[in-house]
Specification:
By secondary structure, the chain is of the alpha/beta class. The protein contains six helices and twelve strands. It is globular and about 45 Å long.
């Protein structure tokens, strides 16, 4: 497969099956007007991108839609081949090796060595914001947590970039990022730029 970088194009994707994908698309475009951003719904579109954001939403619903759209196996193959990825909220759950309270029909990609608990910080009514100190960023980042997964364990290959109450909230493993919060709900593009730095 010829990647977009090899053809001279710079292209990233946002998985657009369910959840807050449109805002991610807009923020990536704000980061670089020359960047091509594709909302990924088909295997063909997935082939076109050099990196992918898996957005927040409902992790079990996204898992089902991956199967309905014949995307699970192609995405698993791209992740196994090292494609950069950024999973936010539900996306973190889909990348984790262990989902402690997952549904029986819910399957993750086991791409980042994490144990997570869905809605670990509570229900929608328990949503909150917090200023995080993030490795690599000079100023605090205002993070928005909505029905957020809680990281309960990380493997030795995982770098913790930010924590809240001693629980990892932003992690990195090679070219893979995952956050328990929603960076797309802010106007702060620094984490999207961090993701792009892993892609190109």
């Amino acid at each position: 497969m010829v990647t977009t970088q090899q053809s001279g194009r710079r292209c990233v994707g946002v998985l657009a099956l369910q959840g807050a994908f449109a805002k991610h698309t807009s923020m990536l475009e704000d980061c670089d007007p020359d960047l091509e951003v594709i909302e990924v719904r088909t295997p063909k579109q997935l082939e076109m991108v050099d990196g992918l954001i898996i957005p927040g939403g409902e992790s079990s619903t996204i898992s089902k839609l991956l199967d309905l759209n014949d995307l699970r196996q192609p995405l698993a193959e791209r992740l196994d081949a090292g494609m950069p990825v950024f999973g936010t909220c539900a996306g973190m759950i889909l990348l984790a090796t262990e989902v402690l309270d997952g549904r029986e029909d819910q399957h993750s990609f086991a791409t980042i060595d994490l144990s997570v608990r869905r809605n670990g910080y509570g229900s929608q009514l328990d949503s909150f914001e917090a200023d995080l100190l993030i490795v690599g960023l000079d100023d605090p980042y205002q993070a928005i947590f909505i029905r957020a997964p809680k990281v309960e364990a990380v493997g030795s290959s995982v770098e913790i970039l930010a924590s809240i109450d001693d629980s990892p909230a932003l992690v990195r493993s090679g070219q893979r990022l995952a956050s328990s919060f929603h960076p797309e709900l802010t106007n702060d593009v620094r984490l999207h730029r961090m993701f792009l730095d892993t892609c190109f």
